[in-house]
Specification:
Strand order of the largest sheet: 4-3-5-2-1-6-10-11-9
Low-confidence stretches: none
Number of domains: 1
Largest sheet: 9 strands, mixed
Oligomer: single chain
Radius of gyration: 17 Å
Number of strands: 11
Number of helices: 9
Order of helices and strands: EHHEHHEEHEHEEEEHHEHE
Mean pLDDT: 92
Helix content: 25-40%
Structural class: alpha/beta
CATH class: Alpha Beta
CATH superfamily: Acetylglutamate kinase-like
CATH topology: Carbamate kinase
Distance between the termini: 13 Å
């Protein structure tokens, strides 16, 4: 991790995280806490893009498994991410953070269409940019959308905020002897079948040498610590001779 922090990052947040303890929908207290954490990180001067999932409202994969057409289900999931994006924008702006929402599916009345150069310009002006509607294509997850947007905006790292404090060799909730990794390579993640992000997203990051930092979202101040380059969570990186 960087000794003096990152200049530009992409933060991936699961939709389920916004539900808090209620398990579904949007928890006002949870989204306000997340907005406060982002606001603290924003004060460091980092340029921050965010991708949010929609699993707290609708999961396309689950609906497809129950018989719904996969493409239709995925489009519905994309719309769920837009609901979360607007909710987070509202919370961030109430916390004093200038924010723009850009969506891969055009809906001019509520958000800007995704335009790469415009997104970068917003970041340069100190605005947080929330990317909604995934990639705009069915069959791709918001993990893959996060990897794609991170590379398009030239982010230095893709940060995956989760419910656990890093990547383990097995589920730490079920196994007390689970081992946490401080650093791990992309190939190790893929070979061990670790559920960091989906395989497409990890492969995309590996091909383009984009580091992935997985850390605990529920610890207040962790987003700020992460962008400042403090050693938290687990870093997924390219294997090199010094490792």
């Amino acid at each position: 991790m960087k000794a003096h922090g990152y200049k530009r990052v992409l933060l991936k947040l699961s939709g389920e995280a916004l539900a808090g303890k209620q398990g579904h929908g949007i928890s006002t207290a949870t989204i306000q806490q997340f907005a406060a954490d982002v606001a603290e990180a924003h004060k460091t001067g980092v340029q921050l893009g965010i991708v949010i999932g929609g699993g707290n409202i609708f999961r396309g994969v689950a609906a497809s498994a129950d018989g719904m057409d996969r493409a239709s289900a995925d489009y519905m999931g994309m719309l769920a991410t837009c609901i979360n994006s607007l909710a987070l924008q509202d919370a961030l702006e109430k916390a004093g953070v200038p924010t723009r929402v850009q969506t891969a599916i055009e809906m001019h009345e509520i958000a800007e269409p995704y335009i790469r150069r415009r997104a970068i310009r917003h970041l340069e002006k100190g605005r947080v940019v929330i990317f909604g509607a995934g990639t705009g294509n069915p069959y791709f997850t918001t993990d893959t959308a996060a990897a794609l947007r991170a590379m398009e905006i030239n982010a230095e790292v893709l940060m995956k905020a989760t419910k656990v404090d890093g990547i383990y060799n097995k589920d730490p909730v079920l196994h007390k002897d689970a081992k946490k990794f401080d650093r791990i390579t992309y190939l190790e993640v893929l070979n061990l079948g670790l559920k960091v992000m989906d395989l497409t997203a990890v492969s995309l990051c590996m091909d383009n040498k984009l580091p992935i930092l997985s850390f605990d979202l529920n610890t207040p101040g962790n987003i700020r610590r992460a962008v400042l380059g403090e050693t938290i969570g687990t870093l997924v990186h390219q294997e090199n001779k010094s490792d």
